[in-house]
Amino acid sequence: MNYPNGIKKREELKNDVKISHKNRGMTLEYELNITNEYYREIDKAYIYKKPTPIKIVKVDYPSRDKTVIKEAYFTIPSTTDYNGLYHGKYIDFEAKETQSRTSFAITNIHPHQIEHLKNINRHEGIAFLIIRFTMLGETYLLTISKFLEYLEKTNKKSIPIDFFREEAYLIRDGYRPRVDYLKIVDELMGGKK
Amino acid sequence: MNYPNGIKKREELKNDVKISHKNRGMTLEYELNITNEYYREIDKAYIYKKPTPIKIVKVDYPSRDKTVIKEAYFTIPSTTDYNGLYHGKYIDFEAKETQSRTSFAITNIHPHQIEHLKNINRHEGIAFLIIRFTMLGETYLLTISKFLEYLEKTNKKSIPIDFFREEAYLIRDGYRPRVDYLKIVDELMGGKK
User: Scanning every residue of chain A, which has its alpha carbon at the shortest distance from the alpha carbon of B1?
Assistant: First the structure.
């Protein structure tokens, strides 16, 4: 099972610390969270990260108004991590970081997440992936149609960086907002590319 | 703090059992889940309940591919429980049951959920509440505009059943779908009431 966002194994946590020492900075998830917060602050869009899905097995009630979850497990999400509303439009995406310099492994996206993004696309929602190549410092928005096109054409297990460079949209780092993906969505809604 | 959906205190669980013995049946949450499942099956709409938000404090790794959450707490949700896509439109709602026969206590909806629904409404999403008066066997869809209108007019702490009977839409029980709230949304999109 893939590891859900936000929760990391100890080894990964160590890596994070190493990365931040090198000044490579914040995780994509954190940057998207502050970006979405900023969009809300300026009343531009209402897009949220969904809570991590878990199955609760045991709950304790040490006192009347306190509840402690004592045993629970991560479950595989049936949808994507982010969704919301922008300009009257339904927005839906999944975001992933990769440490690879050459390609993005398709197994990072669960089959039912792909199914979900297809459904959203068919029903006129705006669906995409945000993929960051951490070591290259490149973050891309890949529309779900381009992603599905790639899946149909090939049976490879990964998408090479060149495909992103040619077919996806580079999201430039900013200060506020940090990861201005709605700028790309504006282009998509305007019909470019 | 309010008790999140899906997790019940032991006393409430006992009540549920009592209710089902009386043949009063399933909880609203369960009925909405099977309704949304049905909508997906017939490719009508993609609306999901969000996972319950929790704050994870302690995680154990008894083996390489197993992760157990050993300590976590429920947190107050900043958005509503349900959102998704229907006919290219963003749908957002909160659902609550009340045991009262006379009124619905407004404190059941968190202030930031009200704020969230206002934002969705302003940005052309379709926002509403689904309120069930369990003892009366009546389930209503109340649009966020009608709800806000009521909040502005009054400083009462609850909404009387008569307000629902006059200003909200009764959702009739069905077999499949069980709680056909999209039928009402169709009316709203068509501009009735």
Answer: A65
